[in-house]
Amino acid sequence: MEIACLLIPFFPLQVEGLRDPKLEGRPFTVPEARPRRQAVTDTSKEACGVTSDMRLPYPLARHGKAKGVAVGLDCEEDWRQVLIRLENCSPAVEDGGAGCAYVDIDGLACLYREEDIVARALMATVPAGWGARLGMAQSKFPAYAAACVSGSGLWAKVPEDTAGYLAPFPVDILPLSQRTIERFRSFGLKTLGQIAGLPLGTLQAQFGREEGGLAWGLAQGIDRRPLVPLRRQVVVKEAVSFPSPVVSNEALLMAVENLLARAFRREELQGRWARVARLQFEIAGAPAFVKRVTFKEPVAGRKRAYSVFKNLMADLRMPGPVEAISLTLSHIGGEAGRQASLFKDVRQRDNLRQAISELQARFGGSSPIYQVRDLEPWSRIPERRRALVPYGP
């Protein structure tokens, strides 16, 4: 299989910079969209001393609002649009996280005739100015490595000697935890070539069967991880524009109620429920204001969703007059009602499954709950005795 990796470095920064051109040359950070935590996911080069995963109060205290540290918006919708356009080029697209996507390009050469045309078609799915780059290889990791070193708007292909191509790359490029990367460096292993030159057993004994084995295989140019295509999600979107900018919360709430009524009349939502809602307010003379809501219980009708937004907007203060509002309902699935089981243990398992689904929708990514599984309890190597795996009832 031939795979292309589309990479947009500093994706949150790119989105924020295009939304608000006034940020050009000023220090600003982009916090996570997750509520409550608000940690930094990306930072401009002018924001000296601010690093990723730093809690938001620290950069604000360091630079102050007067120096342009800006609270970022949720860029999920921008990335979703990129993925949709990529799916128009190839039916198999994997979301590698905001700013990174893997595309199965087997057979596309027959359609586009030349690899250069394939590359340009994939990069055309990204708005100009985002600095997209592309890498092509026989598996995901080498394609990602090639994308990392290709220039903005350019593409690179990994040669047949994949291990030799990857040898000079730093260990930081490996998809492993920062703690493991630091341990590699403490052992004097700074490049993939140094890792590839060690016996597999030595790495597994020191770094564990999973991480040690993965690092050795990737350094050799062997990546057996399959490309996992996106599950096509149903998304319902409605929008309204005002003849003149609106400042009254009552008028905005009435417009939101109208959007909800239109959305729940759509065929896609008949007999189904939505778990996540996203409101985007277009502000006159300022960047858009986004509010994302994860419903505690999935909603299957306008009234329940409206009561949530009514409480939310009671104390909401807009940064300026609103010219338009768009509503997006996502994470849609299942029927609105479900038959409870007669057996208590089955009901408990169903409730736990629903709680995990809610957490996944709220925080994104894989299951936020893990469990410890025994692997080789008799082993003298601690890393081989147990493993932490995502919990799925």
Description:
By secondary structure, the protein is α+β, with helices and mostly antiparallel strands. It has helices at 11-19, 57-63, 76-87, 108-112, 115-123, 140-149, 162-166, 178-186, 192-196, 200-207, 209-219, 249-264, 302-313, 344-363, 382-385, and strands at residues 3-7, 29-31, 40-43, 93-95, 100-104, 133-137, 155-157, 236-246, 272-283, 289-299, 322-335, 370-374, 386-390. Helices cover 36% and strands 22% of the residues. The strands form four sheets. Strands 4-5-1-6-7 form a five-stranded mixed beta sheet. A hairpin with a 4-residue loop joins β4 (93-95) and β5 (100-104). It starts with a strand and ends with a strand.
Give the arrangement of secondary structure elements.
Blueprint: E1 3-7, H1 11-19, E2 29-31, E3 40-43, H2 57-63, H3 76-87, E4 93-95, E5 100-104, H4 108-112, H5 115-123, E6 133-137, H6 140-149, E7 155-157, H7 162-166, H8 178-186, H9 192-196, H10 200-207, H11 209-219, E8 236-246, H12 249-264, E9 272-283, E10 289-299, H13 302-313, E11 322-335, H14 344-363, E12 370-374, H15 382-385, E13 386-390
Parallel strand pairs: 6-7
Antiparallel strand pairs: 1-5, 1-6, 2-3, 4-5, 8-11, 9-10, 9-11, 12-13
Helix pairs in contact: 10-11, 12-13
Strand content: 15-25%
Order of helices and strands: EHEEHHEEHHEHEHHHHHEHEEHEHEHE
- Counted up, domains total 5
Largest sheet: 5 strands, mixed
CATH C-level category of the largest domain: Alpha Beta
Helical fraction equals 25-40%
Structural class: alpha+beta
Computed over alpha carbons, the radius of gyration is: 24 Å
- CATH fold name of the largest domain: Dna Ligase, domain 1
Instruction: Just name the CATH architecture of the largest domain.
Output: 2-Layer Sandwich
Alpha-carbon distance between the termini? 33 Å
Strand order of the largest sheet: 4-5-1-6-7
CATH superfamily of the largest domain: DNA polymerase, Y-family, little finger domain
Shape: globular
Number of strands: 13
**Which stretches of 5+ consecutive residues score pLDDT under 50?**
27-73
